């Protein structure tokens, strides 16, 4: 803990390569450090949550796929019923061929077209549902990972900073700002 405190207190005594005032303009060193800290925190705190979220969403998607397959099975069952009806209509067509062969053929084609349209609509609905669920899952995972990472980072910061360290850091920063003001005056 003393090393952390000393590193905060000695902040004003670091040499500033390529900087002016108290701002460090060495973009490569500051961004790499910040990026590595953020990535480390995200990986450490977010991996368990992310794994659980992905498993839950996987189960949700699998359930959606199962439901879609059940709907598909129902559509196939309807198709079989329609085919049975078609066979019945064809037998009746043989009996009524003299009276209205062309009208029966039109009914048959309409029935087949409506069944294929229904199957096509069900397939499109299944695909849209899967895409919607995937996108929603991705968005939820992103939100939760960000929230967990932010909560973890805040928790880490709060657990590391006690009142004494906080006051010492503020005092050191006030001293640095005072020395800068004296130099500019």
TrEMBL record:
Keywords: ATP synthesis, CF(0), Chloroplast, Coiled coil, Hydrogen ion transport, Ion transport, Membrane, Plastid, Thylakoid, Transmembrane, Transmembrane helix, Transport. It holds the Pfam family ATP-synt_B. It is a single-pass membrane protein. The chain crosses the membrane at residues 32-50. GO terms for cellular component: chloroplast thylakoid membrane; proton-transporting ATP synthase complex. In plastids the F-type ATPase is also known as CF(1)CF(0). Component of the F(0) channel, it forms part of the peripheral stalk, linking F(1) to F(0). F(1)F(0) ATP synthase produces ATP from ADP in the presence of a proton or sodium gradient. F-type ATPases consist of two structural domains, F(1) containing the extramembraneous catalytic core and F(0) containing the membrane proton channel, linked together by a central stalk and a peripheral stalk. During catalysis, ATP synthesis in the catalytic domain of F(1) is coupled via a rotary mechanism of the central stalk subunits to proton translocation. This is ATP synthase subunit b, chloroplastic. It comes from Alberta magna. The lineage of its organism: Eukaryota, Viridiplantae, Streptophyta, Embryophyta, Tracheophyta.
């Amino acid at each position: 803990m003393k090393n952390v405190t000393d590193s905060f207190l000695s902040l004003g005594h670091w040499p500033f390569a390529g900087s002016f005032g108290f701002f460090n303009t060495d973009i490569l060193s500051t961004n790499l450090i910040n990026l590595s800290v953020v990535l480390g925190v995200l990986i450490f705190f977010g991996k368990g949550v992310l794994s659980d979220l992905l498993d839950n969403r996987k189960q949700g998607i699998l359930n959606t796929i199962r439901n879609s397959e059940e709907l598909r099975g129902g559509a196939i069952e309807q198709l079989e019923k329609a085919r049975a009806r078609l066979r019945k209509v064809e037998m009746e067509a043989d009996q009524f061929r003299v009276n209205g062969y062309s009208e029966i053929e039109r009914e048959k084609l309409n029935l087949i077209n409506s069944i294929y349209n229904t199957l096509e609509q069900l397939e499109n609905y299944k695909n849209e549902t899967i895409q919607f669920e995937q996108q929603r899952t991705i968005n939820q995972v992103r939100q939760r990972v960000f929230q967990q990472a932010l909560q973890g980072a805040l928790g880490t910061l709060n657990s590391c900073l006690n009142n004494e360290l906080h006051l010492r850091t503020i005092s050191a920063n006030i001293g640095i700002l005072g020395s800068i003001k004296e130099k500019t005056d």
